[in-house]
Specification:
251 residues; Rossmann fold; 2 domains; 5-stranded parallel beta sheet; 5-stranded antiparallel beta sheet; elongated
Length: 251
């Protein structure tokens, strides 16, 4: 089976590759932009299956299908709104909502094996894909948080966030002015609401923005320690299994 990944975030692409290969499948190629994908499809046999992100570094992925007559099956890997994805699922193209769950990945691959044995997807399917992609791409990442403080509501812009952390089953926003606010979301939910280009979950406890990193130090057991401008309560340690991806994210 010939499988490729089209994903502009290299850490996300490598993480997906590892998860797919744990299922006993082999990723034959990883592509990271519309232009690179078009050039590759023009010069290589089309794969059986594509794991496809929506927004690439140079445009929307459906632009690939406008240029190339692709017959491959597609499983989307997205961070987009669940309602749009649910509607799109009716077209027999599956999706994986980031962060990708390994059980859902296994189900999606099994679904591909059952439903796409002839390795064809109709042109009508791709017209529907294009319409859905346009709608999905209009979604924006979190820009502000509304915090209830007594009888008042306080608006905090995403630019003022120094980090997000979990503590005693609560999720907190720590701001650049060294204040903490309790949020309604979990860190898992925040991962889907924050732009992955700007925010990274370094461990089970912390999500940090790139702009807030003051210093990075070597730590024990091949880990990294991140220093932020004002947050001093706990050490922010990049988990060892995330160090390689974290370094890629920094680039």
């Amino acid at each position: 089976m010939n499988i490729i990944i089209i994903e502009d975030e290299k850490p996300a692409a490598r993480l997906l590759q590892r998860k797919v290969e744990k299922l006993g499948l082999q990723i034959n190629q990883m592509l990271h932009s519309v232009e690179e994908s078009i050039n590759w499809f023009q010069n290589n046999p089309h794969p059986d299956l594509i794991f496809l992100d929506i927004q690439l570094s140079d445009g929307l992925s459906f632009e690939i299908f406008e240029t190339i007559d692709i017959k491959s099956a597609v499983i989307f890997t997205t961070a987009y709104d669940e309602y749009a994805l649910r509607a799109f699922k009716l077209n027999s193209i599956d999706y994986l909502l980031k962060p990708i769950d390994e059980d859902e990945l296994s189900i999606a691959v099994s679904k591909f094996g059952n439903q796409f044995q002839k390795n064809t997807v109709s042109s009508l399917d791709f017209e529907m894909i294009k319409k859905w992609l346009v709608n999905a791409a209009e979604r924006e990442y979190k820009k502000r948080f509304t915090i209830k403080m007594g009888q008042q509501l306080k608006m905090i812009a995403i630019e003022d966030a120094e980090c997000f952390y979990s503590e005693n089953k609560g999720t907190y926003l720590h701001t650049l002015d060294n204040r903490d606010y309790l949020l309604d979301q979990t860190l898992e939910q925040l991962e889907n609401e924050l732009n992955p280009k700007d925010f990274y979950r370094v461990s089970r406890k912390f999500i940090i923005p790139l702009k807030s990193i003051k210093e990075i130090q070597l730590h024990s057991n091949s880990r990294l320690k991140v220093i932020l401008p004002t947050y001093k309560e706990d050490e922010i340690i990049v988990a060892r299994e995330r160090v390689a991806e974290f370094k890629e994210w920094l680039e």
